[in-house]
Amino acid sequence: MSPTEPEGIRRQSTTRRRRTVRLRTLLIWLAVVPTVAMGTQVTVTAERLLAQSEKLRSDVAAAEQVGAPLYTLMVDMQAERTATAARWAGNDGSEGELRVRREATDLAAAEFRRLAVDPSRSFSEVTRQLEKLAEYRQRADARSGAADGTLAYYSEVIGKVIQVYQQEFSHAEDAELAQASRPVVSMLQATEMVAREDTVLALAGPSGELTFVGYDQFVSALGAQRYLHEALIVPHLTARDQRFYERVVGSADWQTKTRIESAVLSGHKDIVSGIRLPAEVGGWSSAHANFSVQMTTLNIDLARSVLARGEAKAGELQTEVAWLIGGSAGGLLAVVVVVFFTTRSVLRRLNDLHERTVTVAEETLPDVVARLQRGQSVDPDALPAVTGDRDEVGRISDAFARAVEVSVDGHRRLAAERHGFGLFASGIASRTGNLVSRQLSLTEDLQDTFGHDEALLAELMRADQLTVGMRRQIENLLILAGGEVPDPHTEPMRVADLLREAAAEVEDFRRIERQALDETSVEPSAISQISHLLAELLDNATRFSPPKSKVVIRAELVTDGLSVEIEDRGPRVSPERYEEMNGRLHEAPPYSVLAQNAHRLGLFVVGHLADQLRATVTLRRSVYGGTSAVVILPRQLLVATDPQAPREIEPQPRVLELLPAPAPAPAASGSSVSAVGESAAEPAPAPERAPEPEPVAHTSAGLPSRRTKAPVAVAAPVPVPAPALVPVPAPGARPALPERVPQTHIAEQLREPRAQESVVRPDTATPEEVADAWADYEQGTQTVEEELRRDQP
């Protein structure tokens, strides 16, 4: 990092400001997000339930369409398998029975192939197995291979049929339907086990002998069907199905079946080739034919019960979906309504709070602060009060009310401190002003006493002028402290006299050129304030102008009142600077601003006085490049001028009024006090004239002296004609202004007719004089630049 890099740049944060989200948006999102989530959940749930309902209806439709042919196919395949076993064992009449069973199987297979066309279901396995039926029939007719292989094919096809029932119609996605469909599948499996027993016994043939493999198959089928009945069928039957099942197993045929199975297990005989069955097996065929029909009826009833439950469940699911959608829609609508009104209520309260806050911040609080600054009382009802509400908006309102209360209390204390400081400053200014007035009186006494000494008189007049400036600064302090300038005037004053009085307050008054273009007068109550305002502007103009330049002040009547314009030849000022200075003139600054601009208090004083007089003061660039100050005094401060009143006279320095008029130097053109003193040693003869009345002392600005008594006479080294003076007014009356007498103060050489000059006179200024003039100009320029640097922040 560069050693000259500013610290502020080094510490500047590079993080971006996060974008603030509006409260309305947050509340809307607070309602939208749960609503969308809830709607999504409802939609997913409804779709799942509808899909489940459609699946149930599809299963019911498929079961009604394909289930019966598939079950018929299974029963016919079981019958054909038994007939094939009997044909293989050589039973009498088995060939015709086999032909009948094969025809029934072919019809059931054709019907199944016609209906099982849905590729999404597992019917294809059964269809592929049926394609091998002709091949295995040929093996059975030719007795090719072992009988167990041919019979195993029929068992495999029947197993595929039961597997289709288990996959397609068990309703595993629904626990209730799965529980209801479990006995159906188990009953099919138990029926298959009984059918296998029938096939094994048919394979024994007339001899009643079984191989060891056949006997094992019989025992396995018997154990499986008993387990299925006891564990998977009976516990899951409904009361109605339970009663029907009990009638079946309690029938004589079922009892015969059970007795034969027990006899085979306990009454068989082992022989060399296998097992010899007991004689009781002869009654198996008729008993099986009877109870199998009853078991088929039970299977059909169980299947129809499951289908009915599936249809009812599908309807329940659709009704549940309807209630879900309706309830969710109502709930979402209620949420939207609640969120809408809640958001509206919160935003309305926040908007009311915002409007009250803006009103308090922009209208109430500034008015309260202004009243406190003016020393006026404040109505407590005008300020927001703490309501004690417990909700969030009420707590924010109470917090703002407390903040306003603290702010008002702070401004009240500041106003009290400012008022106290103003009283303190006013007291100090008043006491100091009294001392300055006494000093001015003492200075005038010294002037009257030692007026014969020109050098001492010049220094006394300079001290008098500085004391007048000191008094003006004390009056500035009094004005800024909130006091008023004392005004001893009781009679209106002409504008010309007012301009002269204002110019007399400036140290460099000789550079001021006055022009009163209209005859009018000013109210006596505003004379001191107007004079002080103009004196501050004139002092500012003389200090910021080159030392040898003139400052012009002119007054004339305009539409809005009296216009007083002060124009100088000072340096150029930027438009921004003019705007800043005009702002100081039009607004009373706080003490903090005064402290930062302690060297520029004149503009603040002018602003205070303009506010008291209801006048406007505007600074702008003049046509000469300097600054022009325009003061507009309202017509309420003006009065008509008496046309018989004496006219304005040109002011003369006090030295010229109390001392004899000097004789003009033949080649020099100086007008300073020192030049006057040097020329007084060689007075010019004066014409004889009547004796003048007793002279009245005048100030350095040409105004009547502050004293009412006549000054002490001053002895001159050589008798010279005295200037025209006005008589002393009567005691208690306002002293009359001196009037100029034509040709009184003019030099003797100028009284004679001027001869027309034919040759231009050369410049008689010496190089030293030119250098002195240039040094004075540079000094004035440096002074102006220093003042401008002090104004920079």
TrEMBL record:
Q: Where is the composition biased (Low complexity)?
A: 661-683
Signal sequence segment:
none
Q: Where is this region: Disordered?
A: 661-708, 746-793
GO MF entries: kinase activity
UniProt keywords (A-Z) are: Kinase, Membrane, Phosphoprotein, Transferase, Transmembrane, Transmembrane helix, Two-component regulatory system
UniProt xrefs under Pfam families: HATPase_c, NIT
Q: Which SMART domains match?
A: HATPase_c
- EC number per UniProt: 2.7.13.3
Note whether Transmembrane occurs among the keywords.
Answer: yes
Q: Which SUPFAM superfamilies match?
A: ATPase domain of HSP90 chaperone/DNA topoisomerase II/histidine kinase
Q: Which reaction does it catalyse?
A: ATP + protein L-histidine = ADP + protein N-phospho-L-histidine
Q: Membrane-spanning regions, if any?
A: 21-40
Q: Domain named Histidine kinase: which ranges? A: 529-637
Name of the protein described by the UniProt record: histidine kinase
